[in-house]
Amino acid sequence: MSFLFIEPVRILLYLVGICAFVGANAAYLVLAERKGAGRIQRRPGPNEAGYAGWLQPVADGIKLLSKQVMIPPGTDRLLFCLAPLMVMAPPLICLTVIPFGENLFARNINLGLLLVFSLGSINVMALMLGGWASRNKYAVISAARVVSQNVAYEIPMLLVVITLLMVTGTMNLNEIVQQQGGGFWHWNFFKVWVNPLMPVTFVIFFICMLAETNRAPFDMAEAESELVAGAFTEYGGMGFGVFFMAEYANIVVGCSTATVLFLGGWQSPFIILSGPVFGPLWFLAKMYALILTVIWVRWTFPRTQFYGLLNLSWKILIPISLFTLLLTGAVMKLPLLLHHLF
Amino acid sequence: MIAQPETISTGSSSRTPQETFVLNLGPQHPAAHGVLRVLMTMDGEWITKAEPIIGYIHRMHEKMGENRTWAKFLPNTSRIDYLSAMHYTHAYVGAVERAAKIEVPARAEYVRVITSELNRISSHLVWWGALLLDLGGFTPILYAFEDREKLLDLLEGLCGARLTYCYYRFGGLYNDVDDDFLNGTRKFVKEMRPRLKMYRALVTDNIILRKRMTGIGPISAEMCRKYGATGPVIRGAGVAYDVRKVEPYSVYPQFDFKIPTYPECDSMARYLVRMDEIEQSLRIIEQALDGLPAGPFMGKVPRVLKLPAGDYCYAVEAARGRFMVRIVSDGKDTPYRVKLRTPSFSNLSLYEEASRGMILPDALAMMGSLDLVIPDIDR
Questions:
Q1: What is the sign, positive or negative, of the torsion defined by CA atoms of B229, B232, B234, B237?
Q2: Taking CB atoms and an 8 Å cutoff, what residues of chain B touch A304?
Q3: Which domain holds residue A330?
């Protein structure tokens, strides 16, 4: 009886927790992005609202909320309103299976990895819907770009993940993290004895993640010097704000997935300082380091050209990831083969 | 802005189904750098025809010239291309001086060269930042503006204006240069060289930038001749055409500088030409500072200026190419006709031919490499 009472409460707490986590991250990553951009561009960034600009996200939120909700005539009303919801919901669901600590996860399911990637792909559909429903030419061009870009980058990303699955043998994210315990040399990133190209696979994963979340230098969806605001051209007020927040929510999901898969999740890099208290801290530290790298990349690179981007995926990333897949298989089966021969 | 599904056939034979759509880019668009409007007929992301529509910032400068005295038109010249105001004033002042046979003291000519080259550097820095913005790189413009700020401070100390200088006068200058300006300019030249090296390492050699610019947007020398394109556009097509060399004016023949040319004809060639020009401008400034003669900064100019009847021209190498003023005088104290030959207008006119068959991002990158200033086109 107590079990039945406790479990819904636990789920509810996690629901609130994840919503708060995503909300706070989306708000304060915008600030981090603007502060980071300021630092890279040798200017202070937002520093007026509150102490050192800490209230800037609140001011932005109030501004966006107080705007009139405009649905331009000629749009597909239903899809136009649905798109911001569809872009925000998947990252929230993805976070339910991400293990923040040894016992800190909403759901520990065996197909966690599959869930993250299947829901992560909905993002592209939402952007396409938003662009298509706007009936704006810039938005339609952007929608077409988003689809071909995401299709192209899903393939190397999943090939990399399959490589990793062959190493781990499980799709349970918490188990994947537990396998990486005992010092940073046990992280999948450093497991060069399983696959000599493991760091390369991480780089491929990171590039694909940038492309999947439509971040610079692959921000084809909102290439503002070409397509004004791309798929979001017709959105204003909080409709635009939701797209904006979803971008950061997707980055959080992408970076936490990368942390779990390659960087040992909540495992301490030095064996010491581990445990239920330090675990989540290590996880967050690794995740935010990746997120800051994403921000750093955005403000230091120009945008790639659209066909260059597709060429990068089809001609470079996919062959390399296929090769690492074969290599991992070969390395894993080599002892067996030798055993049979001799 | 509402995209009508033009591909749907109406069933009647009079209206054939179309595979293209028209994209109206501008006059308010982040890549239009002002109020340029381009009507693009697109096939997917490919441009089949890009028709520039100008006139949104037409201010009748040529007509204004006809109803005010020779001197009163002087401030207008800085407002045609606000990024190379010095060159434009130089051309107009030079034309009037040529007509009235006014002797300009050597010191004034040297200072004109120094300030013109400083203006060229500041103009190229704005172009560089704006081009990178077009390519989606946000950071370089702030570095470029940091350098430009020093230049604008120098010129502000000299003539009180930061953009529309109106510093040259018939027969000389508005005022003499002081030690602050000379020392500041020397300091700037010294600081600028390492900055250029840094820009080369951080931006010019960036692989994404190279991929976006190399081989993209070919503009051949033939096309430049056909449309009258000048400046970095024609030098990027391998033709060493520079008014400072081919029609020497002021004291430019006394300085040693190269005309950078690149035969590749692509956007990268035009990019590299401008980056090299900044270095050459620094060289000219150094030489002019070393050779700056003492003496008056103003020649003898009649109190009421009346030009002898006739037709006079004066061309200068502005930051965007050949700028020429042609004035026709009928002997009165006001011009009969002021004709301004602006480089951006010619450089834009080849856009339709050059952008045919390109995809949208490349076409906009090419537009950035042309360095258009819209008030210069409309004037």
A1: negative
A2: 208, 211-212
A3: 2-341
**What residue of B is the nearest CA neighbor of A132?**
B3
Burial (CB count <10 Å: 0-12, 13-18, 19+), residue A71: middle
Chain B residues 89-128 with CB within 8 Å of chain A: none
DSSP 8-state assignment for residue B295: S
Spatial separation of the C-alpha atoms in residues B294 and B328, rounded to whole Å: 34
CB B231 within 8 A of CB B369: no
Across the interface, which of B1, B136, B364 has its CB nearest the CB of A302?
B136
The DSSP line for A261-292 is HHS-TT--TTSSS-STTHHHHHHHHHHHHHHH
Contact A217 B208 (CB under 8 A): yes
Does ipTM come in above 0.85? no
Parse chain B into domains and list their residue ranges. 61-378
Residue of chain A minimizing CA distance to B29: A228
Fold for the domain defined by B61-378: Cytochrome-c3 Hydrogenase; chain B (1.10.645)
Q: What DSSP designation does A314 have?
A: I
Sheet holding B321-329, edge to edge: B310-318, B321-329, B337-341
Q: Is B348 exposed, middle or buried (0-12, 13-18, 19+ CB in 10 A)?
A: buried
Q: How far is the C-alpha of B257 from the C-alpha of B120, rounded, in Å?
A: 14
CA distance to partner chain B, nearest, from residue A236 (Å): 16
Looking at the partner chain, which of B136, B146, B362 has a beta carbon nearest the beta carbon of A223? B136
Contact between A319 and A155 under an 8 Å Cβ cutoff? The reply is: no
Q: Among B202, B173, B192, B195, which residue's Cα sits nearest to residue B292? A: B173
Q: Report the residue from A40, A140, A299 with minimal CB separation from B3.
A: A140
Inform me whether the C-beta atom of residue B212 falls under 8 Å from chain A C-beta atoms. Answer: yes
Token pair recorded at residue A219: 């921000």
Cβ-contact A330, A336 below 8 angstroms: no
Length of chain A: 342
Task: Give, for all 379 residues of chain B, the pLDDT tens digit.
Answer: 444 444 444 444 445 556 788 888 878 887 777 788 888 888 878 888 888 888 888 888 888 888 888 888 888 888 888 888 999 999 999 999 988 888 889 899 999 999 999 999 999 999 999 899 888 888 899 999 989 999 999 999 888 888 888 899 888 888 888 888 999 999 999 999 999 999 988 889 888 888 888 888 888 888 888 998 998 999 989 888 889 888 888 889 889 889 999 988 888 999 999 999 999 999 999 999 998 888 888 888 888 788 888 899 999 999 998 999 999 988 888 889 899 999 999 888 988 888 888 888 888 888 888 888 888 888 8
Number of domains in chain A: 1
Residue-wise over A212-251: b if at least 16 C-beta within 10 A, else e? bbbbbbbbbbbbbbbbbbbbbbbbbebbbbbbbbbbbbbb
Instruction: Copy the structure tokens of residue A27.
Output: 């708000």
